[in-house]
Amino acid sequence: xxxxLHRLRLQEPPPVLYHLYQAQEEWAARLRPLARHTAALxxxxxxxxxxxxxxxxxxxxxxxHAKPAFGLAETRSGDRPVAVREETVxxxxxxxxxxxxxxxxxxxxPLLVVAPLSGHFATRLRGTVAALLPDHDVHLTDWADARExxxxxxxxxxxxxxxxxxxxxxxxxxGAHLLAVSQPAVAALAxxxxxxxxxxxARPRSxxxxxGPVDPRVAPTREGKLARALxxxxxxxxETALVPPPFPGAGRRVRPxxxxxxxxxxxxxxAHALAQLAQLRALAAGDAAAAAAHRARYDELRxxxxxxxxxxxxxIHRIFRAAELAQGRMEWRGRPVxxxxxxxxxxxxxxxxxxxxxxxxxASAALxxxxxxxxxxxxxxxxxxxxHDALFEGxxxxxxxxxxxxRVIRAAD
Length: 413
Description:
InterPro entries: AB_hydrolase_fold (IPR029058), PHA/PHB_synthase (IPR051321), PHB_depo_C (IPR009656), PHB_depoly_PhaZ (IPR010915)
Oligomer: single chain
Structural class: alpha/beta
Number of strands: 14
Protein name: Polyhydroxyalkanoate depolymerase
Order of helices and strands: HHEEEEHEHEHEHHEEHHHEHEEEHEH
CATH class: Alpha Beta
Pfam families: PHB_depo_C
Strand content: 15-25%
Largest sheet: 9 strands, mixed
Number of domains: 1
Helix content: 40-55%
Number of helices: 13
Radius of gyration: 22 Å
CATH topology: Rossmann fold
Organism: Dankookia rubra
Shape: globular
């Protein structure tokens, strides 16, 4: 196993980089309402309305660390609406176990949805949860913004994420199911393997992995190639920063959410450019619904959170660089992780043919690692024409993937 680079002693410069990110965020926060008000003034005349269109694009500028609301106040049970309320089931320094409780005596099988801890709040899975709510008792990993976690709380690396999932499954009790979206796929599979080997009564009855980098050596992405090509210490010095005062996490090493978002946009620059062009056309045509939908999507994208530096570096070095789990070399706090120990947890892997973030084959490597499972308990779904986000939100998720998840859960229940 590679050395834990996040534990190395580094020459720590003043957190100048983070101050620059924060200055950019504050500057954009002042510019957005100014652009909006100026556009409204110009729109009073027809020539001015045309001139005001580019100003609306400035509403997508910059980032914010303000967490959006889930806004899931209602779902359906059969043919009737039922109220939904958020309940905090358990709290930890780096997040809380959130339940979307329903006013119904039969909420459905308990399901823990593991949100990515990669720069956005768990509200990014709003559509995922909304589709699952009618048939399941949905719990969610509501991760904390690392800059709000005091340094005294200690580090949070890959081993800690695995331990947190085990703890929250134990809180939910026997009979729960587990679904991980993207980044936490390795942690979820490791947690299931450890619990299976221990015959833990809270081990999940089913495990769904949606587009996670179980074996990033398969069809490697640009990010995966960089992780293997660049010197091990480069990411610690160039891609992480220290949180400055006055934030509660002052002194903590993080992967800044602003930096994560910039990397994400640059990796798919053409798609974002086309989205901005489509927004200009919608505004010019007076299509208020399309313009509002675009704005809502980018409001969500601009809402970022800092990732614990230890988890980011572990993801780079233990998952993308060393592929520890895929090569049978992963250890959890010194203990080997054996996916072949999973024998009674149904496994579903979901991938998309057009997923550039996690190409087909990376997540389905889990099917081969879980060789202790009978073939009938291992399921693979390849969604035609689907990119990364379409696998957990939108029409394909709602019409095809979510019903498949529900069928696997019911069969395993």
